[in-house]
Structures are given as C-alpha cells and as structure tokens.
C-alpha cells in the first residue's frame, strides 16, 4: 500500500484472511486500504465493522483508529453526517486522537 500498489496489497491481505483466526488485524488493514485507495469503499466499511467486533490485540490499531478510518471512507462516499459521527466516535475512545480531531475540524469547515 505504501507504494500505491493497492490492488496487489488487497490481493495479499485477502489471501491471508482465512488464516487470521480471531486476529482481526487484516480486517483493519483492508479497511485502511479502502480509505487510502478510494476503492472497494463499502467492503472497507464492512471490514472495519468486523474489526470492531473483537477487542484489538496489544500493539494493533485501536478502535479509535478504526472509527477514524470509517470516517475517511464515509467522506469518500460523500456522507458527511456519517463521517462526522465516525470521527466523534473515534474521539469517544480516544479524545486525543489527532487524526480524528483534524479530520472533524476539516469536515466541519467544508
């Protein structure tokens, strides 16, 4: 994903899903990939929802991170209300989440 090879990254992540067990890290990464690439947005939301079903493992992205990414996707879908709700939910989990704060301020200015 860092090299903008989103299709290749998605293919690799999807291949690993059957082996992930209870670890939902790949779900988060697939949601993140959707937020970054702007592709497979609805699927990205579903992956992030699945991520939120299980407590993250230590060192994994937080639920605040997942809600922030959901906000990113909602913005790309043109749903500002859902984006704002996701950013606010992120801030409920982590009031100091800089990315969620910045995204909410930017969204409210537009």
SSE pattern: HHHHHH
From the N-terminal CA to the C-terminal CA, the straight-line distance is 28 Å
Mean pLDDT: 92
Number of E-state strands: 0
Tell me what the structure shows.
It is a single chain. With 110 residues, the protein is mainly alpha-helical. Helices cover 68% and strands 0% of the residues. It is built from 6 helices and no strands. Helix 5 runs antiparallel to helix 6. The model has no long low-confidence stretch (mean pLDDT 92).
Secondary structure: elements and pairs:
Elements (H helix, E strand, L loop, with lengths): L5 H11 L8 H13 L3 H11 L11 H14 L3 H14 L4 H12 L1
Helix pairs in contact: 1-2, 2-3, 2-4, 3-4, 4-5, 4-6, 5-6
Give short descriptive properties of this protein.
single chain, mainly alpha, 110 residues
Summarize the structure.
This protein has 6 helices and no strands. It is mostly helical and 110 residues long. The longest helix has 14 residues, at 63-76.
